[in-house]
TrEMBL record:
It is a multi-pass membrane protein. This is Vesicle transport protein. May be involved in fusion of retrograde transport vesicles derived from an endocytic compartment with the Golgi complex. Its main location: membrane. Keywords: Membrane, Protein transport, Transmembrane, Transmembrane helix, Transport. GO terms for biological process: protein transport; vesicle-mediated transport. It is found in: Membrane. Coiled coil: none annotated.
Length: 176
C-alpha cells in the first residue's frame, strides 16, 4: 500500500500523461479527471477554502437560528462540511475516499456524520416540527463531534490520547 502511494505521488509530481492505472490502482486515484498535480492541489485548496468559508460563515446566521429559522445556518454549515471533506477526492478519487471513510476504525464515526448530515437537512425543511431549532442545534453538534472523531482517526494514537484525557478529567479515580 505504501509503495502504491509513493508511485502515485511520483506520478502526480512528474505529471506522466500516458499513465494508465491498473484495476488495483483505480481506487487510489481519479484518472477520469486527468488533472495535473498543480490543478489537483488548486482544486483541493479551493474546495477546502470554500467549505471553511461556508462553515465559518454559518456563524453569522446564528441569529436566524435563535429566531426560529434554523435552515440558513444548518444548510450553510452542512454544505461547508461536505465541501471540506470532499476536497481530498481531488487526490484519491471518490471510490478511495469512500473506502477510507468506511474503514473499520472510522466506520461508525463516518456513518454517524453522514447520517446526521441527512438528519440536519431533514430537520431544516420540516417547518411544523416542534422545538425544531433545538433539534437542529443538537443535530449539528452531533455532526461536529462525529466529524471531529472521524478526523482524529487519521492521526496515530489521537483517539487514545483524547480518550485518556477525557477519562482523567471526567472520571477521576481518587475522589476525596
Amino acid at each position: 500500500m505504501l509503495e502504491k502511494l509513493k508511485t502515485q505521488k511520483q506520478r502526480l509530481l512528474e505529471g506522466e500523461p500516458d499513465y494508465s492505472p491498473t484495476s488495483q490502482e483505480d481506487g487510489l486515484s481519479c484518472p477520469s479527471l486527468n488533472l495535473s498535480y498543480k490543478e489537483r492541489l488548486f482544486g483541493c485548496l479551493l474546495c477546502f477554502s470554500l467549505g471553511m468559508l461556508l462553515s465559518l460563515g454559518s456563524t453569522l446566521r446564528l441569529a436566524q437560528l435563535v429566531h426560529g429559522r434554523p435552515a440558513p445556518f444548518a444548510v450553510c454549515y452542512t454544505l461547508g462540511n461536505i465541501l471540506s471533506l470532499g476536497c481530498t477526492m481531488f487526490f484519491v478519487g471518490p471510490i478511495a475516499q469512500c473506502q477510507s471513510m468506511f474503514h473499520a476504525k472510522r466506520r461508525y464515526s463516518a456513518l454517524t456524520y453522514v447520517l446526521f448530515i441527512g438528519v440536519t437537512l431533514a430537520l431544516c425543511f420540516s417547518p411544523r416540527l416542534p422545538h425544531r431549532t433545538g433539534l437542529v442545534l443538537i443535530s449539528v453538534s452531533i455532526q461536529f463531534c462525529a466529524l471531529w472523531w472521524y478526523t482524529l482517526s487519521y492521526i496515530p494514537y489521537a483517539r487514545t490520547a483524547v480518550t485518556n484525557v477525557a477519562k482523567k478529567y471526567c472520571c477521576p479515580t481518587d475522589q476525596v
